[in-house]
Amino acid sequence: MLDNWIASPYHAETRDINRSLLGVPKMRIAVVNEVSAAEKNRDIMSALSGFDHEVVNVGMKKASDSPELTYIDTGFLAALLLNSGHFDLVVGGCGTGQGFLGSAMQYPNVFAGLIEGPLDAWLFAQINGGNCISLALNKGYGWAGEVNLRFIFERLFSVELGCGYPEHRKESQKQSRERLKGISRTVHLPFGRIVESIEPAVLANVLQFPGVIASLEIDRIEDAALRSALVARCRSLGIQTP
What we know:
It contains ten helices and five strands. By secondary structure, the protein is α/β, with parallel strands linked by helices. It has a single domain (about 20-235), classed as Sugar-phosphate isomerase, RpiB/LacA/LacB (Ribose 5-phosphate Isomerase B, Chain: A), CATH 3.40.1400. A five-stranded parallel beta sheet has the order 2-1-3-5-4, with helices on both faces. Helix 2 packs across helix 3 (about 100-105) and helix 2 crosses helix 8 (about 200-205). It is globular and about 50 Å long. The relative contact order is 0.15.
């Protein structure tokens, strides 16, 4: 059985969340942990429970998982999941959050932010309206670290993505987000081309990780070039696709 699971309706110990305050529609969220913070995966999944979002645990669940994923791998994985069109948000990170952030932002259609506390989450959601967050999961992760994670997600989901803050900056921020999307399209190769040419070691690590192929649903990817590139690379690696 694939070691993927969806965050269950909140556990008894999870405090009740006033759902009338939630500002975003239901999302499909992927969690992608790398090796240095693999043991924090349980904390992230617990913190994400209790919301009306579908959460798929795609990355490492414990440090002994194989193949081992570094932030180089999970950055590519985050981009792959977002560009597949099957996920609305990716939650990742590493020891400091900086490595995963830099890795994920090398790819098109990834708009990521470093989130260290609830205020970061609240502002990122409104001003940047991004689709990927990077968490610092070792640096500063001490007493009540798991509580901080829960507060982060409460604030992240408490406002409408891209609604703008403060109010008088809302239109300017919307224009900036749209310009950034255009810049991303201009300066990056199409993701299908990236899959065709990316370093084999990174591609193999990611595609061979348990549950990744199932989460990608390759046959349902609308981007024909990306779908074709993934099928071809999987075949070359001896990976079976649906």
